[in-house]
Design a protein that fits this description.
By secondary structure, this protein is mostly helical. The protein has one domain. The chain is built from 13 helices and 2 strands, in the order αααααβααααααααβ. The longest helix is centred in the C-terminal third of the chain and has 26 residues.
Length: 280
């Protein structure tokens, strides 16, 4: 969650000089190199055939469509609006996980998500610039939320047959292949971008992509998709804290309140209290 939160700062910086598709491809190519090296060091090879459907779908949707749609969406709408829309994703994960993966609907997870979503809305309202949102931008953020949720649901079955490292590596490679149409843009923009923008692109590939997605997959293999989705609501609170400490951007009281609600919701979803599960 910490690395994914840091990605917002890096994307905001790199996105000033890289177009959405080129940024996604550069990030995925960098992440793929790091992940392949890690896979070779661990002595792991191709994942079993049974894992490939989930790897392919999650690679297309989460590594490919999500990253491009989110990059493009944040160019068209303000950060607050984007945060509120994308945070529909964990709710979709809980609903799809309860239905398609037969995880059921745990009362504490649903309650925690309700609290955290309210916090995300508060954070979004506090960060909104007051302008009108682009319809295209809103639709792109909705696409990002839906592809993120569908990617997680697809990834979960793959982790029953392959390791977190294998699922993440080949999912990232799949996403990179899907983004190859942006190769010419990336090649052009690499020659004109500043070193700081390119450094942010490389950072996005190694840390929020290679490292964070691998640790996510490791954790997802050991719990339900719904509970893991709920933990992502901690990201807005971490972003607030990082902006305060690193960028010296002091948030207002409303932003602090929203961040506190996000963390409280995650705590509720991970608690043992009210652990009754309703099966679909």
């Amino acid at each position: 969650m910490l690395l994914w939160a840091s990605a917002f700062v890096a994307i905001r910086s790199a996105g000033q000089e890289y177009s959405p598709g080129a940024l996604a491809l550069g990030r995925l190519l960098t992440g793929s190199v790091a992940l392949v090296v890690l896979l070779l060091i661990r002595g792991e090879g191709w994942p079993p055939r049974a894992a490939w459907p989930g790897i392919a779908i999650s690679g297309l949707l989460w590594f490919g469509v999500y990253m491009v749609a989110l990059n493009a969406g944040e160019e068209a709408v303000d950060a607050g609006t984007a945060a509120m829309i994308v945070n529909i994703g964990p709710i979709l994960i809980a609903l799809l996980g309860g239905w398609l993966l037969r995880e059921g609907f745990q009362a504490r997870v649903l309650a925690g998500m309700a609290v955290s979503f309210a916090g995300a809305v508060v954070v979004g309202l506090s960060m909104a610039d007051g302008g009108s949102a682009s319809v295209i931008g809103v639709l792109l953020c909705l696409l990002a939320a839906a592809s993120y949720a569908a990617g997680v649901i697809s990834q979960k079955p793959a982790l029953r047959h392959a390791s977190a490292s294998q699922v993440t590596t080949f999912g990232c490679l799949t996403g990179a292949v899907c983004c190859l149409p942006f190769a010419r843009q990336l090649s052009t923009e690499l020659t004109s971008a500043s070193w700081s923008a390119t450094a942010n692109l490389v950072y996005l590939g190694i840390f929020p992509t290679a490292l964070a997605f691998t640790t996510w997959a490791y954790a997802l293999a050991r719990t339900t998709a719904g509970r893991m989705g709920a933990t992502t609501y901690a990201v807005p609170a971490v972003v607030i804290l990082m902006s305060w400490l690193v960028l010296d951007e002091v948030p207002g009281w409303l932003t602090f309140l929203g961040g506190a609600l996000c963390i409280a919701g995650v705590a509720v979803s991970r608690s043992r209290f009210g652990s009754r599960t309703v099966r679909a």
